[in-house]
Amino acid sequence: MNALLNTSLTGNDMLFLLKGAAGTLALTAIAVIAGSLIGVVLGVVRAERGWLLDRVLGGLCDVLRSVPLLIQLILFNSFVSLIGFPLSAFASGAIVLSLYMAVNCAELVKAGIASVPRMTRWASRSLGMTYACDLRYIVLPIGLRTVFPSWVGLSLAIMKDSALVSVLGFFELLKSSQTLITRTQEPLLLLLIVGAFYFALSFPIARLAARFERSTLR
Amino acid sequence: MDIFSGWIPQFHMNYVFQWRAVWASLPHLLEGTLVTLEITVLSMMLGVAFAIALAMGRMRTTGVWYHIATAWVEIARNTPALFQVYMAFFGLGAFGIYLSPYTAVLAAVAFNNAGYLAETLRGGFKAVPDTQMSAARSLGMSGLQAHRYVVLPQVLRIVFLPMTNQMVWAMLTTSLGMVVGLKELAGVTQLEQSRTFRTFEFFLAAAAIYFLMAKAILYSARLVAWRSMKRGA
Hints:
heterodimer; A: mainly alpha; MetI-like fold; 8 helices; globular; B: about 230 residues; mainly alpha; about 75% helix
């Protein structure tokens, strides 16, 4: 426990960790934004374009959700290499995380659309709204309210899962800490710093989402 | 734990898939699969046991047990699973606790499971009306009996599906064993591919096995649910 008090961590090391944190945040931001966009399209198609398309796409989504993200990352990375189009660890990680976000987000979008009563949508269409208008002004506001807390939870899960991109060699937060641990031999201190960072980001947001959920349920 | 950067071979377009190495290593992969299943089952059992205690602690809303349970649940849910594995494997050393890769992964996954399951169980307990307990007690059951025969069966029915999903998730999470050198499915795959340099083939095979395991868990859970519901109704 002495290691916690006289540490050999320097200011530069903290800068190094901050860079890692920036990498984590960049990966998360890309994956959440790209994944949500793809996920919305995928979800609307799955919910609105017939059961056959839903089944086929659902089966594909299921594969991505039943294989560990770690394996997906390695597979994708070696796949792009073997087709002669090697990507950086960051790019591979961002793509795999985005797809993972997309398939899970599609599930939420489907649930959100299902939460809008069919009568409400018929009413909007019979008032002369186009299909697009119905989606934008009727389904979106009602559906978003029901699935928004889950979407926040999903985004936070992506933030935590971005730690896995370290196996491809990308210096996100957790890998940066591992590098410093190799030098300073102070695993506990560094892990506590890193854990505190994830916690400080995830905990308040999760709490806010839970409060939002309670307030909309009431 | 730098295990991939630097040496992944750069293939060309004329890559030839070779599955022979994978076939030859299949017995090893299946051994790894068994380790994965073993840790999954053990981590679920430990997870449920701790989750019951945690859920009880969380329902008090005050006192030292409440705070311990809350800290556990929030840390488990708000930090990466990989961080929890590292903590068990490298971090505990500062306290003089040195775990083997197996124990470290089991401890981390069980810790994680307990955190998530505690909230699931708490939701389940909340969903059973208090009057059920009162009714059981007024029939002369002891507190323990009322829990055992009246409350818990109802809770179990509510939390069964989320628990199944948690088990799949735990199974997928055990793949983190690879980064601490555990010879579960992902770890064995990693070892075998580093011997043969057939990265893609090996990890594709592993992905297929993980997929089948996930399906097996979901379908057997559905079977169990169907049979018990039939008896219950």
